[in-house]
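Figure S4 source data
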Amino acid sequence: MYTFNSFVDKNKFDRFVSSCETASFFSYSVRKMIKEVDKRFRAYLTGIEDDNGDLVAAAILLYMPCKRIKTMRISYGPVLDYSNNVLLESFLLEIEKFSRCLKIDVIEIEPPFVIKKYDNKLNVIYENATDIVPLFEKVGYSYLGLEDLGGNYQLRRTSVIDLGASEDELFKRFSSSKRTSITKNDKYYKIRIVEGTKDDLKYLVKYRNQLSEKKDFFVEPLSYYENYYELANREHKAKVVKIVLNVDDAIGNLNDDLDILKRKTLSAREKELNSLNSQIESLEKRMDELRIYKDENSCVGDYVIGCAFRVYCKDTMVNLFAHVDKTLFNIGASNVLVYNMMLDAKNSGYKYNDLYGLPNPFDKDSLDYSVGVFKLDFGGDVIEYIGVFKKVLNKNRYKLFNFLCSMRNKLNIK
């Protein structure tokens, strides 16, 4: 009935993925190419074909041969009809056979299977009636649950904005703080989003490194992002944009408004003075911050304060990487960036804007909770995926490795 193919033709693979509603940019063959530029990785385009030789399921299998514990990872896959239990079970068993031939120790799968959708107020608007956990458990997988996992796992949620509404309607869906921030930019900062080139990815790495110093995460070398851009742009569509600020102009705009406010205080009633003085204090603070930034960075004219890299696939634009100078967080450059990208996607005919990854919006104690709030304030829906399934193929080796790791950690603690 079904035949497993471990070397599916790239074009055939992508045609099938394009036909599936659950697929995303990360499900396409370009992800295999991006990973294999790094010689440490091996990847396979696999699938299940019916009696006519047509693909009915597809998945990118990825692992690192150099690792002590060889883990076959399937994220954003398999892509198939998850209501077809026979097909899903068949594919899982074939993936296991193929992995055993490669002497894989562990298989980890993160299916693109949506279990719930919420509006940006976190009200449930959709719940999937299909439960795929029992079938995975039937063939020996453990379900790692609904908790967010660290390490190399994907975030279980993302925020997706429906671009079908008018520009005014989209703006009205923003939180009041987002609307205020964007309005202030139009008045004072006049931050511009300028399309760049591959060469401008140096700014992305610059500000990504800056953030990594604070949050301690690994930043790939510039060549990684350059290859990523070239491959994504060749297979689909990609853009690099720069976030540009003229610091002198911004200071001048703030100063002009400051003069107006100070003149108002001369004739203001007493009950108006508190509000005016508060506005004056805020503007003076912003001006001081910008003057310090100008001196520290020797800004002359237009200055690049951030960079973003986005991809366009099927009907969706994905905000893949974006970083802004963290010392300028008060001027709302990130809000201007996301709004601009959203409108660019809408005006280019795309239906959705995926903000790509959302920390758990229900966990207010999370260190990344504010990132989730930032994204939800743009009015998108929350898409929640099922998470991770894991099957250990070489149990003795896996247990030994974990034992040695725990012993090493105890010795390091001491």
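Figure S5 source data
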Amino acid sequence: MEKQEYINLLNQVIGLIKMRRDEQMDTIFNYGDYGLKPMFLEKYTPLKQILDNDVIEKVQIGIYKNGDLVLEKVNKTSFKDLYNQVALKVLEIEEKYQAYLVELHNNPTEERLREIIENKVY
């Protein structure tokens, strides 16, 4: 394989890994009666800071119930529990993403690049 072909393949894999990461960040996972998306973490960090500073005791958040996005008022304890579960999920996604980036930085074989493309698992 020529160098330019390898670089094109590598860039294709980098784009694919980023796309798969973004898909994971937008995928609902279940926690108890709720469905949560990892992007919850970024969206609701300002509310967490408000709760942490004891400005208020309850917040209204958008959360999934039975597949539908609904508004729900939750107390500080419930919110922190949900937030922590999302943080763990984000950590899992980001660790996989960083592992792929390190692997790609270290010039994997053409065979490995093709394996990543064909493997639909993130």
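Residues 3-118 form a domain with the Helix Hairpins fold (CATH 1.10.287). The CA atoms of residues 50 and 56 lie 7 Å apart.
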